Amino acid sequence: MTRETGAGAGNERELAFRALSSFRRKGVFAPELPDPERDGPGRRAAALVTRITRGVLRNMALCDFYIESFSSLPARKIEPQVLDILRLSAYQMIFLGKIPVSAAVNEGVTLARRHANPRAAGFVNAVLRRLADSLDDLPEPRRASRHEMLAIRYSHPKWLVSEFDSALGGAGLEELLAANNEQPPLTVRVNTLKTDAEAAARSLEAQGLRAERRVSPPGSLDLRGGGNPGDMNALRDGHVFVQDASSTLAALAASPSPGDKVLDGCAAPGGKSFAAAIEMKNTGAITSRDVSADRLTLVESGARRLGVTIIRTCPADARVCADADSAGSMDIVYADVPCSGFGVIRRKPEIRYKDPEKLRSLRDAQLDILSCLSTYVKPGGRLIYSTCTVFRRENEDIVEEFLRRRGGFYAEPFALPGDLAAAPDGMVTLWPHIHGTDGFFICRLRRSS
Among candidates 243, 286, 246, 242, which has minimal Cα distance to 265? Predict the structure, then answer.
């Protein structure tokens, strides 16, 4: 068991408690962060609140296992607000090396006095002190099945562990679960309209970051070392923009070139539109659509910062084929559809707790969007279908159903740059533990001439 580094005070723990309570009640992770502009320590406080809350979400089942190991009650019988307090306290004690154990215990008791019934403080104190006495010899999760054990060790719901195992064909399951629980680097794409990778890396490293150049995709940098993205001169000046390698690769799979006419059908916040514009050397035309007009402002502001002038935004529902004038006119169409998101758990740990029953309606939306956006592809043009999930029902099955329903398209073989992966059948799934990217599916379709 490794412990991260961190430091903090009671106010941060109060905010982390509120964030966990909000997630438990509403299913939404939105921590109430200190104002980073108010004072210098605000940024550090915000970082600690996020680290604690995300850390608990990454390790919730494991924290519950340890809590139950030193509690007279099973987790399901502990008052919800008390369990939240125990989880955030246990996480700090087990994983955060620079937070004194005594401080975590004392603040946990203080939170219990403030937010629970009078007896809760004594209960929290007893559980946490037993845990503190055993930190050097913590029990190991043991369950009847391998999936149950891994579900606890890596804090993924058992149904999700089983689905990942099936998707992987029985190989690499534990490696994937471990990768999902790691803090990934912040990946940025270099804007070659303004600079090059070497100069961008120098600028970022001058601000105390480690900038590692990726082989695939070339022109992307993995940033490590902490820091607030908003403080990066290279980001503010439009020399780089935040985009995971997987999303960049989806944009590059279409092979955009200068002069192309492109439609990005689900564009916000704009990463694929920006990547395509840069490959096109800011020559041609890109229409960036999204159902949310508010989110399209992110595309517009991003384009201004990057110096991209060929992007035009347009609010539109990708399920509605209402633009007859554009039918059959696009060289490239991107269909990056809404999905379950199970490929980005390492960035958004709360995704693992989604209710699978509520995701069943995604299939209809995905098919509708792909079918509608396909009408804008010109003969000989390319259609890129992508998701940030790894399950066949949202990926290959959707493509195969689309091809059965609509003639005139076929899956076209392609290879990702840097020899990262080949797609001889026109489809590829990227995995965090194999490719060092978010989990992502990319399919390249060609319309017959």
Answer: 286
